[in-house]
Design goal:
single chain, Leucine-rich repeat, LRR (right-handed beta-alpha superhelix), 9-stranded parallel β-sheet, two-stranded parallel sheet, 20 helices, about 10% strand
Length: about 500
């Protein structure tokens, strides 16, 4: 007599394979309700990533996940948030109010731009589908009400003299406008959160807890350090401010006020803030020493005004090399140069991080993006040899993407000599040639023997100057053809000859 078979008779390996192909987490969540076997097979696919900030609540949540029998084995991605609650804002209400006004204005400007973009997209879509054009009257009542509320808020901000002078001495709390009352109450919440953050940071306790937690993740593959702008994780409700007459539509503009500042500080404090530099050098070193070995590491941060504070000690550099020892994909994004034009010693402080960061011997992909460096189009004070360890080759490096990176002709020769037989994709957009001629640079890059893809968009230096607007007279296609050995005519030499 044949045994009865059903789906629950499938081996756990088969169920595991089934759930690994289900991209919709909601479906996985519902599948857990079928049986205990389904629950055990599906649970690891519900949580595969974790995020941590320097707050007691966030750290406790990370520890809870990393101590869990199932989730500790399923988590493969961890994001460490560098953004912080600014102590200088928490200690000075007037400064907080200035920052509050600035955040509101930037938030509303962003909303206005997004609204205009959305409206243009709708019109373009109708044109493509040959739908008759529509007027603004066709927009639904909800959108019209939203625009009316935003217009009211703009008027409240721009035409309220009390608001514009909110940080001046003699501010009378008893006669505060509803907006000012909201800001004062949010200040109290912000200060409480900052105090919690500083308690967690005392004695580098936060680093101990993060390192201890991540050491319990046997399948950790991707580690990211992020510095997002405006982390909005709380929606203000009208029930929290019953006496002010604000509904949710109005309060949503204030959600951003309780967000932590970026690593380099806010627009109000970026010149005076002391960034939590331990979140780079010390934390990375300790992670390496504790045995954390990810395959991908991505660091995204804003450049603080005093960049030399990032400088890593020799012990920290050694620990960072351990962290990167098994990495195959490394990426570093640095933004915010418009608020800081660092001198050479400041940039060398950053280089003390970048050199050990890119020492991973098994790198396959290397990406560096210094967005808008230098923002005022001054000549950079460091070059590629300061930023990268060009002493020994990466045996498996296939893709090298550089944006806004300065280099000398000697740097390019050293790079090509190291990686001539491995690089298939090379991009150097917004590259700044500090010495030599661009005709020489093109000749040197032709030395990549396996190159398949090349990009040199918007070059600067030598013949291309330091133009603010994109360079339009660059023979890109001819340059690429020459570098890829599709032609034997160097277009930049040919131009000079003609």
């Amino acid at each position: 007599m044949a045994l009865k078979q059903n789906i629950q008779s499938l081996p756990m390996e088969v169920l595991d394979c089934v759930f690994s192909h289900m991209g919709d987490k909601e479906s996985v969540k519902q599948s857990r309700l079928v049986s205990r076997a389904f629950n055990n097979a599906a649970a690891p696919y519900l949580i595969d990533e974790a995020q941590v900030r320097v707050t007691s609540k966030s750290l406790s949540r990370l520890e809870e996940l990393c101590n869990h029998d199932i989730f500790s084995k399923s988590i493969t991605d961890v994001t460490i948030i560098l953004s912080q609650y600014d102590v200088s804002l928490a200690m000075d209400r007037s400064l907080f109010m200035q920052d509050c006004t600035g955040r509101l204005l930037r938030n509303m400007e962003m909303r206005e731009r997004m609204g205009a973009y959305k409206w243009r997209r709708m019109i373009a879509s109708r044109c493509r589908k040959r739908v008759p054009p529509f007027s603004f009257q066709d927009k639904n009542r909800e959108d019209a009400l939203q625009r009316e509320i935003e217009q009211q808020l703009w008027q409240l901000m721009y035409f309220n003299p009390v608001l514009l002078k909110i940080s001046e001495e003699g501010f009378d709390e008893k006669e505060a406008t509803p907006f000012q009352q909201v800001a004062m109450r949010l200040y109290s919440r912000y200060r409480e959160r900052c105090q919690d953050q500083e308690r967690v940071r005392r004695g580098n306790n936060h680093i101990d807890r993060i390192c201890s937690a991540l050491a319990k993740l046997p399948n950790l593959c991707n580690l990211r350090f992020d510095d997002p702008y405006l982390i909005v994780d709380e929606e203000l409700q009208a029930s929290d401010f019953p006496d002010l007459g604000f509904d949710r539509r109005m309060l949503e503009h204030f959600d951003c006020i309780l967000s932590p500042s970026r690593w380099c500080g806010s627009h109000t404090t970026n010149s005076t803030i002391v960034p939590p530099v331990e979140m780079l050098g010390e934390l990375c070193a300790r992670l390496g020493q504790s045995g954390t070995r990810p395959r991908l590491v991505w660091v995204g941060m804003t450049a603080p005004a005093v960049l030399w504070r990032i400088t890593l000690s020799r012990d920290q550099q050694a620990g960072l090399k351990l962290l990167m020892s098994k990495v195959t994909h490394a990426r570093l994004d640095v933004d915010g140069w418009e608020s800081s034009e660092p001198p050479r010693n400041g940039m060398l402080g950053l280089c003390s991080f970048t050199k050990p960061f890119f020492t991973a011997p098994d790198l396959e992909t290397l990406k560096i993006d210094f967005v808008n460096y230098t923002s005022r189009y001054q000549t950079p004070e460091v070059s590629l040899s300061d930023l990268l360890p060009l002493e020994s080759p990466w045996q498996h490096l296939d893709t090298l993407i550089l944006s806004y990176q300065p280099a000398t002709i000697e740097d390019l020769r050293a790079l090509v000599a190291l990686q001539a037989d491995t690089i298939t994709t090379f991009k150097w957009d917004y590259g700044w040639l500090l010495s030599g001629r661009w005709s020489e640079a093109v000749e040197v890059l032709r030395g990549f023997r396996k190159l398949e893809t090349v990009s040199l968009e918007y070059p600067k230096g030598e013949r291309f100057g330091t133009r603010v607007t994109p360079t339009c007279d660059v023979p890109y296609e001819e340059m690429y053809s020459y570098i890829l050995k599709e032609t034997d005519v160097n277009p930049l030499i040919a131009e000079n000859t003609s």
